[in-house]
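Project outcomes to date are best conveyed with an example. Our students and postdoctoral researchers have been running inverse folding experiments weekly, and each run begins with a structure described purely in tokens. The record below, which covers 476 residues, was selected by the lab manager from last quarter's runs and is presented without edits.
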């Protein structure tokens, strides 16, 4: 029998998939023990505070074991998969059949270096890629303890293999329900077994609505009822939405990172918000004209496109607003580029990817970038790098029918523009009251580096351009 030497085993460790982050959750394994992998092949998908990221293996070999099951949160630097880089297929195939005594327990964190490393032998994690993150504050929260008892590697490998690929006997293993990672997370948070959910999506895919529909009173244990004293008047039952009294949702992932970032921003940067109500009738007419322009064929043209361009022009005319505050160095850092962030509501929560060097893009190029940014975010494919390095942000609360708001700055940015709903309202136009398309803009800025005059100039410029969009040409 061919045996696998410990010296040929390389451990792939969880990389820093978001600059400064300390942990990530394994969403899905794409390989199983016994599979052959090649350098650069994606072996699993993990979720950080901001994005779902696919991890490539940095060497060739045969998978020996998966150290953690799906849904486990793993600290950065912890080995998650072991690969035999020297043996052939036979060696790896026989490995799972080894005696249980040879297999270490699953999923316990090992903070030390690989004890199997020989002097002069390269580290197993030497080629682990460090993926760029999004600059959120480092979380001080420790990894959650694993749920359930430890199980030997041989058992875990069989379970993971069966769940991932639907392999096994027909009597013991059922095909895995089809659902996207955000939907699986929602089901996990709500305690819903996807195998019991009736899918309504195309090709039998389970949707978020299906998961919510599966949350029934039967899933919540009834609370004990205390008999009221005989002398007391009977009390009416407390009404509830769906029969359940309350639902607890773990604070993690996007919501956790957003909460930490917003609290840090609100209590670090002194916020000032200014408002202006503007007639955007001409802007709305220009949007309709651009939709018919051959240069914009196949591109998504909407008011947000012209609002983004107006903000870029206003920044060009008032460049001091495009800056950040360096607390350690006690310096104001002026940015000579604009990485324009666009807040996007996604199934995973609110994400703010940004368009790199947006100031250098033409209007059609900006339209193309906006379309790609929004579609990628909604599909849950936004990379951590796309959410790093933003300088100014736009949040469009008007899509929810909201008139305006007081947005909180993204950490490290100097300003954020909130766009309210565009509504037909009575407006004095050329001395007469007429129905006009009107919206309210709100600009929040860091008062340490942006004073009232500068903030007012920027907001006034944006409003003037949207009221007379021909200024996009004369001021650009």
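After processing, the design step wrote out the following sequence:
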């Amino acid at each position: 029998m061919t045996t696998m030497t410990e010296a040929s085993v390389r451990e792939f460790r969880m990389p820093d998939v978001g600059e400064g982050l300390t942990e990530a959750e394994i969403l899905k394994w794409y390989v199983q023990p016994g599979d052959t992998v090649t350098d650069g092949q994606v072996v699993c998908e993990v979720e950080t505070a901001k994005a779902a990221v696919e991890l490539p293996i940095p060497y060739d070999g045969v998978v020996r074991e998966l150290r953690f099951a799906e849904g486990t949160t793993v600290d950065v630097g912890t080995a998650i998969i072991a690969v035999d880089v020297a043996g052939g297929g036979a060696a790896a195939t026989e490995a799972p059949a080894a005696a249980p005594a040879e297999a270490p327990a699953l999923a316990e964190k090992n903070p030390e270096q690989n004890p199997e490393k020989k002097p002069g032998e390269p580290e197993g994690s030497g080629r682990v890629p460090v993926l760029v993150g999004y600059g959120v504050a480092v979380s001080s929260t420790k990894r959650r303890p694993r749920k359930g008892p430890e199980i030997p590697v041989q058992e875990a490998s069989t379970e993971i293999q069966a769940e991932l690929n639907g392999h096994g006997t027909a009597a013991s293993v059922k095909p895995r329900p089809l659902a996207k990672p955000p939907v699986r997370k929602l089901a996990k948070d709500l305690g819903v077994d996807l195998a019991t959910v009736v899918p309504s999506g195309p090709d039998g895919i389970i949707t978020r609505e299906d998961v919510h529909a599966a949350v029934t009173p039967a899933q919540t244990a009834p609370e004990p009822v205390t008999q009221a004293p005989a002398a007391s008047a009977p009390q009416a039952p407390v009404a509830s939405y769906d029969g359940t009294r309350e639902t607890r949702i773990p604070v993690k992932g996007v919501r956790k990172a957003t909460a930490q970032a917003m609290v840090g921003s609100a209590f670090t940067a002194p916020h000032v918000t200014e408002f202006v109500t503007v007639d955007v009738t001409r802007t709305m007419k220009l949007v309709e004209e651009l939709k018919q322009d051959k240069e914009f064929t196949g591109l998504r043209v909407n008011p947000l496109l012209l609002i983004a361009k107006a903000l870029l022009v206003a920044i060009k005319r008032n460049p001091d607003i495009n800056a950040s505050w360096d607390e350690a160095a006690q310096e104001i850092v002026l940015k000579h580029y604009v990485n324009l962030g666009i807040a996007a509501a996604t199934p995973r929560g609110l994400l703010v990817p940004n368009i790199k060097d947006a100031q250098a893009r033409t209007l059609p190029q900006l339209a193309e970038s906006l379309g790609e940014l929004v579609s990628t975010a909604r599909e849950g494919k936004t990379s951590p790098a796309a959410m790093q390095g933003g300088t100014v942000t736009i949040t469009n609360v008007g899509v929810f029918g909201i008139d305006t708001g007081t947005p909180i700055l993204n950490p490290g940015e100097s300003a954020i523009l909130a766009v309210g709903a565009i509504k037909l309202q009575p407006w004095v136009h050329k001395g007469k009251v007429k129905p006009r398309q009107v919206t309210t803009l709100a600009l929040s800025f860091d008062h340490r580096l942006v004073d009232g005059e500068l903030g007012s100039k920027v907001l006034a410029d944006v409003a003037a351009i949207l009221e007379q969009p021909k200024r996009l040409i004369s001021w650009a």
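Confidence is low (pLDDT under 50) at residues 88-173, 217-234. Residues 214 and 392 are 41 Å apart (CA to CA). The training component of this project remains on track.
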